[in-house]
Input
Amino acid sequence: GENVEQHPSTLSVQEGDSAVIKCTYSDSASNYFPWYKQELGKGPQLIIDIRSNVGEKKDQRIAVTLNKTAKHFSLHITETQPEDSAVYFCAASTQNTGNQFYFGTGTSLTVIP
Amino acid sequence: NAGVTQTPKFRVLKTGQSMTLLCAQDMNHEYMYWYRQDPGMGLRLIHYSVGEGTTAKGEVPDGYNVSRLKKQNFLLGLESAAPSQTSVYFCASGKGSSYEQYFGPGTRLTVT
Output
């Protein structure tokens, strides 16, 4: 099955700086890559996603890039704010029955005011 | 529109006891999922369903059973709980392939 690796596991940045989280995947058939943010005690919430026919997608301060050849994708958060502090998960899925998501192990982001 | 709800929020079981976790969604989604989340391991899929009356195994199905008798509900059962099943359980629903999954708030289960 698919194997998703995520780095780093923890990340601390000063408020206003940028944060980058990277994920790699193993299955070349994977074609959908969502990113989730999880705040303490809550369920994960989608913040951005990208499909394999697109190389980059941006939504205000958040962007995701995808390199299908190298099988990696990254989350970029610019102008970080304290409310960006959370755990972020990447995932990959193939367009097969069930739309199974394979998640990375998460990155705990701390934005220092 | 409540989205995805889970019942209960917390539960403590003794080894060998059984219980059922209930997930409900009001978004008319065909697909529903049960995950477990353990420290340092991300979310792992237990079972999923692609429609009413269907279920399938995910990555870590052993020790769990599921049922999808109604489109809006997805039940996760533990027949004989073990300490290794101590975890936070999340339910999710989605429209289908290559679409996002919407998560519930989670159930924290402790098995002693």
Remarks:
- Chain B touches chain A through 27 residues (CB under 8 Å).
- Chain B has no helices and eleven strands.
- Residues 38 and 87 of chain B are 6 Å apart (CA to CA).
